[in-house]
Amino acid sequence: MKLIIINGPNLNLLGKREPEIYGSSTFEDYFRELQLKFKTVELSYFQSNIEGEIIDKLHEVGFSFDGIILNAAAYTHTSVGIGDAVKGIETPVVEIHISNIHAREDFRHKSYIAANAKGVLFGFGLKGYELAIESFL
């Protein structure tokens, strides 16, 4: 099974940014843990702060991977383009958020991705990525 995690803006700051919300681990450290836990899964990782790069990556992997785990971060609530990219590809997408987006600002309650996602996970911290992987298995 071939899965990719795609993270959006500011998630490169995990471990530094608002640890009370996002925790103190870097995503790279956590990704290595996921690779060790899911040894039978070919797991890739991509992060960008640039909307167009995320769309390009979705187009690149959206017809050849078995699953995409997408944390588009703030773009979730603003990017019609990323939502359209998810709608236009064949590979199923699980939308994920580390925090409980419904316990945060009102603008974070709207997702341009969710309607075309296989499922949505939020509020479970980094554990949500593991749950998303398990949903494909």
From TrEMBL:
Record pathway: Metabolic intermediate biosynthesis; chorismate biosynthesis; chorismate from D-erythrose 4-phosphate and phosphoenolpyruvate: step 3/7
An example molecular function term from Gene Ontology annotations: 3-dehydroquinate dehydratase activity
List of residues binding substrate: N71, H77, D84, I98, S99, R108
EC class: lyase
GO biological process, one term: quinate catabolic process
Entry EC no(s): 4.2.1.10
PROSITE patterns: DEHYDROQUINASE_II (PS01029)
Cited PANTHER family: CATABOLIC 3-DEHYDROQUINASE
Name of the protein this chain belongs to: 3-dehydroquinate dehydratase
Species, as recorded: Polaribacter pectinis
The encoding gene: aroQ
